[in-house]
Design a protein that fits this description.
Elements lengths: L1 E5 L5 H10 L3 E5 L3 H8 L11 H10 L3 E4 L2 H4 L5 E4 L4 E2 L5 E2 L1 H13 L4 E5 L7 H11 L9 E5 L9 H7 L2 E5 L2 H15 L3 E3 L3 H32 L3 H8 L24 H4 L6 H11 L1 H13 L6 E5 L14 H11 L3 E5 L5 H6 L15 E4 L4 H4 L11 E4 L6 H6 L3 E4 L5
Parallel strand pairs: 1-2, 1-4, 2-3, 4-7, 7-8, 9-10, 11-12, 11-13, 13-14, 14-15
Antiparallel strand pairs: 5-6, 8-9
């Protein structure tokens, strides 16, 4: 069949490659001409998704994958259109629909009769029906006859997209029953996973938000308990595993903050539309405050932070993924600077030029720089085996992700701090 994927970002391009690798003819649409040009040359603009560069090269050479900036033309022959245009937040934490609105406007201009459109971008409950269906039907097209529309949230992560597509059950909800059934059949045929067909698009939209807010709230709980542990002289690294031996306890690991393009944003799709988001709002406040708390810990351990050189290890929001969206590293650097410290940053996935473009002062770790303190923000494997005794002038290490062994650090006469460790 002919499949079109709209938006070729870190999710859209792997998704397009997946369906093309299953023998379909796939057209990818993107507003970025550099991205489109790179793909049409067989060069993946996303290099850190395992297997993607090789697959793009093979699929383009075989004529099964192509890209275009003309979305209306790109959907003209499509049997199925998958929409992954981004939904961001504005300064007031309200949804920024510009990319999605543009995508649906252009899809409407080219969509052929009988095509199935599936929105996979996470949106607020009701958006598929109330916002995007009218865009597709404004010229008289009729749902259930001229087009079919469903919502099915992407349930994959950067760095493991292909594995996740083949492993995680799919959630589907149609704007009408026929749309839901067609979308479910499409995923069953192409993913080989269980498909949960919910009553309607609103239920599927709600499902994705519930998954994400669950994680944010539970991380916030772990962080709040960690703060209490610190003043109580308790170490959560000792206590939480024991607490979790009780089958109904699932305490998460506390840390210096929550990053990524999903968890820090999706709770606002609830809290900006309803008063029933008190817990979700509180979780955002707690998690957003963790970078400042980490700096507080360092300031106390060093007897002052002004004039200190502090190395932030890890800018990626999670290990092995070259993505700095909402990374706590940025908040750490901002807070350190505001208190008169000099923050430095290192990440094995980012070049010095890329770190500088993010507004950070890049540093190398071989040889180690002279610094007063280190904050481990990302649990990259390379950091777990570092010999901190080689860092000239190092007085304190804050293990923000509970990935270091404290013994060698303390044996070198360096203070070891961890979120949730008061002993």
């Amino acid at each position: 069949m002919n499949i079109t994927v709209v938006a070729l970002g870190k999710m859209g391009l792997p998704v397009a490659a997946w369906y093309a690798s299953r023998g379909h003819r796939v057209t990818g649409c993107d507003v970025n001409s550099a991205v489109v040009g790179s793909i049409n040359r067989g060069e993946s603009p996303i290099q850190h998704e395992p297997g993607l560069p090789e697959l793009v090269r093979e699929l383009v050479a075989g004529g099964r994958l192509r890209a275009t900036c003309d979305t209306a033309a790109g959907v003209r022959d499509a049997d199925v259109v998958i929409v992954l245009a981004p939904l961001g937040l504005d300064a007031a934490h309200s949804p920024d629909y510009r990319a999605l609105d543009r995508a649906f406007t252009e899809i409407s201009a080219g969509l052929r009769r009988g095509a199935l459109v599936i929105l996979e971008t996470t949106v607020a409950v009701g958006d598929t029906r109330a916002r995007f269906l009218p865009m597709l039907t404004r010229d008289g097209a009729v749902l259930g006859r001229d087009l079919f529309l469903a919502f099915s949230p992407e349930r994959v992560q950067s760095g493991t997209v292909f594995r996740d597509l083949a492993a995680y059950p799919r959630v589907v909800g149609g704007v009408d029953a026929e749309s839901g059934e067609r979308a479910a059949a499409f995923y069953r045929a192409n993913l080989g996973v269980a498909v949960h067909t919910l009553r309607d698009a609103e239920a599927a939209e709600f499902c994705k938000l519930a998954e994400s807010v669950y994680r944010d709230v539970n991380i916030a709980l772990a962080n709040e308990l960690a703060l209490y542990a610190e003043i109580s002289g308790v170490d959560v690294a000792e206590v939480f595993p024991v607490a979790n031996s009780q089958p109904q306890s699932h305490l998460h690991t506390p840390g210096v903050g929550v990053g990524g393009h999903c968890i820090p944003e999706y709770p606002y799709l609830i809290t900006t539309r309803t008063s029933h988001g008190v817990l979700a709002s509180a979780a955002r406040v707690i998690n957003d405050a963790m970078p400042a708390h980490a700096v507080d810990r360092l300031e106390a351990a060093l007897g002052g932070i002004a004039g200190r050189r502090v190395l932030i290890l890890g800018v990626a929001y999670r290990p092995g993924v070259k993505e700095a969206s909402h990374s706590p590293a940025m908040a750490l650097a901002t807070d350190l600077t505001a208190r008169g410290a000099l923050p430095l940053a290192h990440d094995p996935l980012f070049s010095a030029e890329e770190l500088a473009a993010l507004g950070l002062c890049p540093a190398e770790i071989d040889p180690p720089p002279e610094v007063d303190a280190v904050i481990v923000q990302t649990g990259h494997l390379v950091y777990r085996s570092l010999d901190f005794s080689r860092f000239p002038g190092l007085k304190a290490v804050l293990d923000g992700r509970a990935v270091l062994s404290s013994g060698p650090i303390r044996a070198a006469g360096i203070a070891y701090l961890a979120i949730g460790a008061g002993v």
